[in-house]
Hints:
Number of strands: 31
Number of helices: 9
Helix content: 10-25%
Structural class: alpha+beta
Shape: elongated
Oligomer: single chain
Distance between the termini: 98 Å
Largest sheet: 5 strands, antiparallel
Amino acid sequence: MNKKVIWCLLLVLAVSSRLFGQVSFEATVSKNELGINERLRVEFTMNTDGDNFKPPSFNGFRVVAGPNQSVSNMFVNGKRSFSKSYTYFLTPLKKGTVTIGQALIEIDGNVYKTSPVKVVVKDAVAIPKNPNDPNYIASENLHLVAELSKSSVYINQPVSVIYKLYFGGKVRPSDVNPIDMPEYKDFWSQDIPSRRTIEREMYKGKLYNFVAWQQTVLYPQRAGKLPIAPLTLDVQLDVPTNRRDFFGNEIYTQVARTITAGKRTLTVLPFPEEGKPNNFNGAVGAFDLEVKTSKNALNASESLQATVQVKGKGNLKLFSLPELVTPSALERYDPEYKEQVNTTLGGMRGNIQDTYTLVPQFQGKYPIPTVRFSYFDPSTKSYKTLTSKELVIDVIEGPKVRGAASNPSVSQTVEIPTISNAFQFIAQRANFKPIAAQTFIGSLLFYALLLIPILLLSIYLLLRKRTPDAAVLAQRHKARLAKKYLGKAKRNMSDATDFYVALEGALHNYVKARLHIQTADFSKEKMEALLTEKGVDTETVALFIKVLTNCEFARYTPSSRSSMEQDYATAVEAITQMDKQF
Length: 582
């Protein structure tokens, strides 16, 4: 045989043996497309035994079983065949294209990785009707329903949505976790705490247990057909099997289900144009108007408080109060806004008010004109206008307005007194007497003037020692702020839900009180932009937003005492730093 042919055969055999001895480590899936309610089997297989296996993170999936390890070691016709695999069973948590990352294994000192695998998750698919299949039993006995209190409302009229989790008597939910929380676009929304107690009612002609998982009150902000995004939950269920234990008790198996409430649409009607007042600013409900002053008679340069208050049931947080108009002779300061509003599934109820500080400058009687407030009443489908009574402020003593009538109107301009009359109350004649000639040095006055500065300096040093330092004063200021704005939250630390509701409300009220703003948009993005615009530094804004984020998370996840104390301390630090910067 030719030597070249022999060398070629030897080379082919060497390459073949090298190829057959090559390490293989691969990832395979049971299917590349599946419904969100189906399971996926993922298998990582190697042809050479290895150590330190590290699976991927499985982002977008929940591991329901695994890893299950299997080893195959066979000899066929004198040739050894080895296979080792790790198997996982997964359920998807979201729809779309999800990538399973790389797994790692160490073989003979080298690290090998699998290739990423892409899986497409689609809508839920029909499950075969096998009465003995735990997945079928779970699908037939578990439902998530979104109930609307009304199907048609006006803009800014409240509507409640309750997400009810129904489950039949055969199954028992052991763990429930939200996957996709609904985003209420074009709505002002507020979650209402639910105790999630088990109740019973009829659903589709069958008696079910149910839990009100989430309750929210919504105020639509525009007219039209507004969609309400669904809620998606991941539920772990204990499902009975046909087997029984030694004592005759039924054996349960655990099944994971992903359920979604159906998409709902709300019809929102626009405000009627007929009879719409010019001063209407979006108030909807049933209200009363009250305008009052702390006193009706006072002297010039003294102060009084004038309050404009609207109370009743309606969208109290979503409109601004009418402005109080005062005569030019009454110095008026920016109003202090206060609200006492309780929000339930039926909507908002309470009162909001603006308190003005007024300081009269001159003697006389000054009328405060009537205040008009218009709102839309959805029960009668008509507009209503409330008018306050005219108030008169009687300034008894003080400088007189030259050339003004005794009862000046609002539109009149106050004439400032001339220089010659402005100081007429200062005495122009004095009874000064000459001081008798005497020696100043050595006199009583001399020694008095010499000792007084020393005495004053000693008193100053004594008082300074008793005055708290800056750190103590800062601590006292922090305690006052915490007591004023966060006192209710601290008192509710025994209940996590009440604590975080009070904490979130306190943070909103602090910003509104310090910045004198009236707005319904208190999203984190809006809050962050507003504080940054007012000159609050980035670190303090981050602290403030962190507490608001924790308040939102606490609605859906349990909170420990330590986490509540930490969030309370962070809130105190945030408002203290902002108060310094304001």
